[in-house]
């Protein structure tokens, strides 16, 4: 059954984590583009800004840019993009730098936790969309 039928951009630099996350998402019906290198992280978002419904990004991307930076850049082009950060850091330390409405999962998350985070983000997105529609209708 295809639970996750949207398109996902997976951003990270740790091959093992990326391969496992990609396989998990594809197993559940997701289309996954994996951007492992620095330039590909932004190129995929610039060339196809509306193609992705989700950004799943490692926070620590090695030298240079962070997953937090990539998410902020992605939201400039698609404000309703769902974002899931993967990190071994505590979410509380990252919240001030994260995009609004982002979900956090640990890098050691099980397949169940990753899928649950995606489903929760879908729910959150639906709630935000409904609230925005209600505000625009009442104006």
Describe the structure.
It is a single chain. Helices cover about 45% and strands about 20% of the residues. By secondary structure, it is of the alpha/beta class. The chain has a single domain (about 5-130), classed as 3-Layer(aba) Sandwich (Rossmann fold). A five-stranded parallel sheet has the order 2-1-3-4-5, with helices on both faces. Helix 1 links the parallel strand 1 and strand 2. The longest helix has 28 residues, at about 110-139. It is globular, with a radius of gyration of 15 Å. The chain starts with 6 loop residues before the first strand and ends with a helix.
Rg (C-alpha, Å): 15 Å
CATH superfamily: Response regulator
SSE series: EHEHEHEHEH
CATH architecture identity: 3-Layer(aba) Sandwich
**Poorly predicted parts:** 128-139
> What is the mean pLDDT?
79
As laid out across the biggest beta sheet, the strand order is 2-1-3-4-5
The proportion of residues in beta strands is 15-25%
Number of domains: 1
Secondary structure: helix percent: 40-55%
Write a short abstract of this structure:
The protein has 139 residues and is an alpha/beta fold.
């Amino acid at each position: 059954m295809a639970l996750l039928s949207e398109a996902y951009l997976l951003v990270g630099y740790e091959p093992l984590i990326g391969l496992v996350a990609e396989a998990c998402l594809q197993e559940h019906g997701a289309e996954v583009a994996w951007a492992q290198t620095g330039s590909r992280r932004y190129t995929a978002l610039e060339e196809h800004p509306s193609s992705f419904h989700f950004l799943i990004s490692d926070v620590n991307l090695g030298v240079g840019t962070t997953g937090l930076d990539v998410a902020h850049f992605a939201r400039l082009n698609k404000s309703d993009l769902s974002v899931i950060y993967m990190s071994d850091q505590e979410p509380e330390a990252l919240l001030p730098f994260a995009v609004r409405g982002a979900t956090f999962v640990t890098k050691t998350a099980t397949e169940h936790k990753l899928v649950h985070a995606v489903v929760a983000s879908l729910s959150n997105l639906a709630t935000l969309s409904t609230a925005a529609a209600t505000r625009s209708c009442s104006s």
